[in-house]
Task: structure prediction
Amino acid sequence: MPGFEVFGEEEKKEIMDVLDTGVLFRYEFGEQRKGIYKVRTFEEKFAAYCGVGHGQAVTSGTAALKVALTALGVGVGDEVITQCFTFVATWEAILDVGAIPVFAEVDETLNLDPVDLEKKITAKTKAIIPVHMMGAPARIEEIMVIADRHNISVIEDTAQAAGAILNGKRLGSFGACGTFSFDAVKTMTTGEGGMVVTNDENLWRQMSEYHDHGHDHAVNPGGRGGEGRSFVGFNFRMMELQGAMGLAQLAKLDGMIAAQRKNKAAMKEAVDKLPGVTYRTILDEAGDSATFLAFMLPDADKTRKVNEVLNANGAGAVYFAVNTWHYYPEWEHLLAGKTLAHNGWPFKDPASKRKVVYDPKSLPQSAAILDRTLVYQVPVKLFAERLAQITAALEKAAAVV
Result:
């Protein structure tokens, strides 16, 4: 990853189709656009690729989460369980619909631990958002059993795992809906952009209307503006240029994943040089999107020392234990309840009472795992010189383990 590594004539052609019509807007302008509907076509093809019936394109992966939560009826007073290792967008979307994020432990999949998930369910739990973090599946089959037993909706945050498979099914197709991101560093990218996929036609229709100011999109003689509105919406429309990019990138996705699998295997061979190294649990190696290589060392002290050597030799790994974008104890704005709202919303209720307090030390299992985990991003194109640099750095790091 990411998909910009393989930009080429295919993306240019799709974009020129749009520019030739002069129509950048998702809807209307039927005569001028000459039958070209890039976003609509992208939705249809991406849904089919995921093995589901419907796709709703939006402006970002963050918007996809908010649209999904809203369509499922999540709101003020509800709780939504997610994992403590994820990008901030997952819980930002929960807060933005007025609900309370409840954080659960991860296990050695680096994704939501089903055992801790069940402990966190209360009468207020309205939804569960497992994250297929860094391109590999959460224990989604087990999570679905738990969710179904409690009659709770599941939204799969598949932002980093487009194209990944678990036991013959695409990630994003297990829950009520799956959300995807196509931002600048994803395996397939539209620069910015996202998608929600679902098999539930009614849920898709609600998402379609909500993301476009509540317009019901009924065909009517008055054109746009003549539709009815069943509820208040917002604007999360994807534009035609993004849809065009998405079509070209989707056609390349399987090829990019195949390249990443090959490159990940080569990088893993180099990491194997570290004494005592183990690897993240991948539930379906054959379905791995191979966007990241995560490996564990015996303890936190050795992990930090190894990464010091790697950094000194130009091949530093990501140490998520201190990452401020992806790990719960490092989200200082969440922990402190920082907000621009004068009344403290969404961390305080209308009476200015704090609704929830987050303890950075409340998830020890996750800390014990992430404190000894290092991660390499896997490129689509891995040049021999770069692999040699990584290999040499790991050989030097092996001496400190």
In short: The mean pLDDT is 96. The chain is about 35% helix and 15% strand. The first helix runs from residue 9 to 21.
